[in-house]
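User: quick one, sequence for these tokens?
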């Protein structure tokens, strides 16, 4: 039985559940991290917003961004003993409407653009084609209201399968007040994670070196990210997971 972690971007699943993934693989459970929005958009030009993000991440183009971030992801997954699977849907910062206008020209949090209305069904179809009946599917709750996190959750729920939900790290550090609303009618379970597994979780997290500078004061440097993960883990010496009752 595989465990499939649906990761909106190339880092989300590892940030949020790296310790659990590591313990599962060490126990002989096959784990795969399926990153959804990590396709090459094949753009000749990007929006000013995307260009600014590229600069923060240390990249010069969308092509380089996707290629290097996939490398980071494979390195992180290897540390945890998981398999990295990359889908070809593109990140919201690269998506356009039929008129060629950028869907998210300056912000990726909040309302989903109407042009993305069919995106969850497309993603759900792509996920469904690769699933086996006995796979366990893990999805992000969508804390922080990043549009790609929300779209990925919608896609997962369209599958009409039993889902296990995990908290989005580091967004929970910035928006803890959203947790109650995102887990309405759900039951919570705390999964214990050994301190030795926390070390591997941190090591895997730091493979996403390009992303740390853009993740806010609680996660924007290796030492800070490591400390934040430890503090998050130490509150329950594990992570919280959720299911619908």
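Assistant:
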């Amino acid at each position: 039985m595989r465990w499939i972690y649906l990761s909106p971007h190339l880092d989300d699943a590892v940030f949020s559940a790296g310790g659990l993934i590591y313990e599962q693989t060490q126990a002989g459970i096959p784990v795969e991290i399926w990153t959804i929005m990590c396709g090459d958009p094949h753009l000749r030009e990007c929006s000013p917003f995307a260009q600014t993000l590229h600069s923060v991440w240390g990249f010069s183009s969308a092509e380089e961004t996707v290629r290097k971030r996939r490398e980071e992801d494979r390195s992180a997954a290897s540390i945890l003993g998981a398999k990295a699977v990359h889908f070809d849907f593109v990140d919201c910062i690269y998506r356009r409407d039929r008129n060629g206008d950028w869907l998210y020209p300056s912000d990726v949090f909040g309302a989903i653009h109407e042009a993305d209305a069919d995106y969850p069904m497309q993603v759900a179809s792509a996920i469904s084609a690769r699933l086996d009946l006995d796979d366990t599917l893990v999805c992000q709750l969508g804390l922080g209201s990043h549009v790609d996190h929300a779209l990925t959750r919608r896609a997962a729920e369209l599958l009409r399968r039993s889902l296990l939900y995990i908290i989005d790290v580091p967004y929970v550090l910035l928006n803890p007040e959203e947790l109650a609303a995102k887990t309405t009618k759900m039951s919570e379970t705390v999964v214990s994670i050994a301190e030795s597994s926390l070390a591997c979780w941190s090591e895997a997290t730091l493979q996403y070196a390009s992303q740390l500078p853009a993740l806010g004061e609680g996660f924007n440097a290796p030492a800070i990210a490591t400390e934040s993960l430890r503090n998050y883990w130490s509150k329950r010496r594990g992570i919280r997971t959720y299911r619908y009752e």
